[in-house]
Specification:
The complex is a heterodimer of chains A (396) and B (257). Chain A has 396 residues and is α/β, with parallel strands linked by helices. Chain A has 2 domains: 147 residues, Rossmann fold (3-Layer(aba) Sandwich), CATH 3.40.50; 216 residues, 3-Layer(aba) Sandwich (Rossmann fold), CATH 3.40.50.1100. Helix content of chain A is 42%, strand content 18%. In chain A, the strands form 4 sheets. A 6-stranded mixed β-sheet of chain A has the order 3-4-14-9-10-13, sandwiched between helices. A 4-stranded parallel β-sheet of chain A has the order 7-6-5-8, sandwiched between helices. In chain A, a hairpin with a 2-residue loop joins strand 1 and strand 2. In chain A, helix 9 crosses helix 11 and helix 10 crosses helix 11. Chain B is of the alpha/beta class and 257 residues long. Chain B has a 9-stranded parallel β-sheet with strand order 5-4-3-2-1-9-8-7-6. In chain B, helix 8 links the parallel strand 4 and strand 5. At the A-B interface, helix 8 and strand 11 of A face helix 3, helix 6 and strand 6 of B. Chain B: Pfam families: Trp_syntA (PF00290). Chain B: It comes from Pedobacter cryophilus. Chain B: Keywords: Amino-acid biosynthesis, Aromatic amino acid biosynthesis, Lyase, Tryptophan biosynthesis.
């Protein structure tokens, strides 16, 4: 049987998706990255610095935790990959640590980033403080109001937070503003994109930096179960970076079933949803050809989810390819299902997950699991940032 | 006969092009503005088809796109409006916009519809050279449409040559790496860059755009290129006025002198 090719090709495509749909103004920046990122990442001194920072600063390896009470409830062996225990509380920092070293090697003096919920903004501000680099974060005006503690964190670490006031004033518009900044500052600035989206080589670069999640998971599974081949691997998907990191080293092992949970919001067909694999059509957004939610005329539709981190109208091009090739099963989880799953994990395991992660956990309810099944769930982030939402939702 | 080629054959300097967004400030404005601009002395026009996420544009043109979308402008409606184009306007017309609306319309259908109403060329800033060459070039050529590429101060000489070889019409020389509507410092470095591209003796004429807003910047551009494009400054004029058509002659006069 021929194994499908799930990796990026030399033109920057995953099957029909990817590429670099960027204005000429960004061409030199993207070209520089494209020509250098693999070589720089492969350099021994880059790897030494990256591994040291991942270990001593981020706190890796993150534990793989057998959640016994959760396992008992669902009748299977459920492992949680604890990305929530990373410094800054989510998987996002795996990527920003990698990209900040890369930016330094490229001689960049100024870092820009977009953020939705603020997790990627915080992870970027963190590594900029660590390296003493100027940091500018674009965040939708609406999100700034929704995520005040993360805005304060970024400011404490010296970042400038600029509100995106165009369009819908959320993540998609913050991404537009960051790209505009890059167009206007092409020489000294590096743009740290936070997910596996954007023009090639970003999706590949970000998934490489996140792939540490599945690399560790495989080793930990051997130690704990004697096999590096789980039956199921689950992760939530907005742009899709924790999912890409969680799936990365399992992609070619077709026996491992990969499941990605998207945000259905108030329901897939409610008009308030972010379930891109169901509602999206092929198109171009933020520099790559992918699946995105749009009108018949090609205008991008504003998505909705209770979790700001999944509130994105597209998915990364590799996800679009994994969807089309059916290597990964994409499922839709509503706000309510995700919130209940967050409460359940808190009660059963004493772990309050991010609402994003709740979407992956909620899928357990819908699976027919067997006693011997080994399930790995990427616990992509902790729920501290969501307390306000939990308090309102559950009347706490 | 390609109207763009005809224009550049006849006129070698001081060519003035104006950009405006279709469906702004009101849905029915498109052809009225085009007519008024021709009458006032513009040499060719760029009609923007709006997109929700215009990456290369500053706030003024972004806002005009958003208003146009709210007014109900779509590519379908634009092509309907342009049915009467050639009975009312004779100067060359380009459509300018982003890849996604064009891809949703279907690039082959888009090119066919554009040619049918008498459009002469297209500018799509986020359509990469390589994808154009591989996927879409034949559709453009078959329909006699020019595809206009952008060149910035950071574009390498090798890439400029490549762009020149794929261009039919003109090359859009950006005065700096910037989004539209930025106030630019006119520095010697810009002059050096214009001169450098001019000295390459390309096959296609050069038209300078971005940051052209008055007679001074227009004249400066004409020292190095066949002409210049005004976008943001014109769109601003449309937004500032209730009676927007009445301001068009004086605006053009102000630029041309």
């Amino acid at each position: 049987m021929k194994i499908m090719d799930y990796r990026v090709n030399e033109k920057g495509y995953y099957g029909d998706f990817g590429g670099a749909y960027i204005p000429e103004m960004l061409y030199p920046n993207i070209e520089e990255l494209r020509n250098t990122y693999l070589d720089i990442i492969a350099q021994p001194e880059f790897q030494v610095e990256l591994q040291n920072l991942l270990k001593d600063y981020v706190g890796r390896p993150s534990p793989l935790f057998l959640a016994k009470r959760l396992s008992a409830k669902y009748g299977a062996n459920i492992f949680l990959k604890r990305e929530d225990l990373n410094h800054t509380g989510a998987h996002k920092i795996n990527n920003t640590v990698g990209q900040i070293i890369l930016a330094e090697k490229l001689g960049k003096k100024r870092i820009i980033a977009e953020t939705g919920a603020g997790q990627h903004g915080v992870a970027t501000a963190t590594v900029c403080a660590l390296k003493g680099l100027e940091c500018v974060i674009y965040m939708g005006e609406v999100d700034i109001k929704r995520q005040a503690p993360n805005v304060a964190r970024m400011k404490m670490m010296g970042a400038t937070v600029i509100p995106a006031t165009s369009g819908s004033k959320t993540l998609k518009d913050a991404t537009n503003e960051a790209m505009r900044d890059w167009i206007n500052n092409p020489v000294d600035t590096h743009y740290i994109i936070g997910s596996v989206v954007g023009p090639h080589p970003y999706p590949d670069m970000v998934s490489l930096f996140q792939s540490v999640i599945s690399e560790e998971t495989k080793k930990q599974l051997i130690e704990q179960t004697g096999s590096d081949q789980p039956d199921y691997v689950l992760a939530c998907v907005g742009g899709g970076s924790n999912a890409m990191g969680m799936f990365y080293h399992f992609l070619e092992d077709e026996k491992v079933r990969l499941i990605a949970a998207e945000a259905a919001g108030l329901g897939v067909n409610s008009g308030h949803s972010a379930a891109t694999s169901v509602l999206g059509k092929e198109g171009v957004l933020h520099g790559s050809r992918t699946l995105l939610m749009q009108t018949e005329d090609g205008q991008v539709v504003e998505p909705y989810s209770i979790s700001a981190g999944l509130d994105y109208p597209g998915i990364g091009p590799q996800h679009a390819h994994l969807h089309k090739s059916k290597r990964v099963e994409y499922v839709s989880i509503t706000d309510d299902e995700a919130m209940q799953a967050c409460m359940l994990l808190s009660k059963l395991e004493g772990i309050i997950p991010a609402i994003e992660t709740g979407h992956a956990l909620a899928q357990l309810e819908k699976m027919e699991l067997k006693k011997d099944d080994v399930v790995v769930i990427c616990l992509s982030g902790r729920g501290d940032k969501d307390l306000d939402t939990f308090m309102k939702y559950f009347n706490l | 006969m390609n109207r763009l080629k005809e224009l550049f054959d006849q006129k070698k300097n001081n060519i003035l092009s104006i950009y405006f967004t279709a469906g702004y400030p009101e849905i029915g404005a498109t052809l009225k503005i085009a007519e008024a601009l021709e009458k006032a002395g513009a040499d060719f026009l760029e009609i923007g088809f709006p997109y929700s996420d215009p990456l290369a544009d500053g706030p003024v043109i972004q806002n005009s796109s958003q208003v146009a979308i709210e007014n109900g402008m779509t590519l379908k409606i634009l092509f309907q409006q342009l049915k009467d184009l050639r009975s009312r306007v004779s100067i060359p017309i380009l459509l300018m916009g982003y890849a996604n609306p064009m891809i949703q319309y279907g690039v082959a259908n888009f090119c066919k519809a554009a040619a049918e109403v008498g459009v002469d060329g297209v500018i799509v800033p986020d359509l990469p050279l390589s994808e154009y060459e591989e996927l879409y070039k034949d559709d453009f050529i078959k329909n006699g449409l020019s595809n206009i590429f952008l060149v910035t101060p950071q574009t390498s000489e090798e890439r400029i040559r490549k762009i020149d070889s794929l261009s039919t019409g003109f090359i859009y020389l950006l005065s700096s790496s910037a989004t539209t509507g930025k106030d630019l410092n006119v520095s010697d470095a810009i002059g050096d860059y214009y001169q450098r591209v001019k000295d390459m003796n390309l096959n296609n004429p050069l038209i300078i755009g971005f940051g052209i807003s008055d007679k001074q910047s227009f004249d400066r551009a004409n020292k190095y290129a066949a002409g210049a494009i005004v976008g943001t400054a014109f769109v601003k004029t449309l937004s500032d006025s209730t009676n927007y058509l009445a301001h068009i002659p004086s605006f053009i006069k102000k630029i041309k002198g």
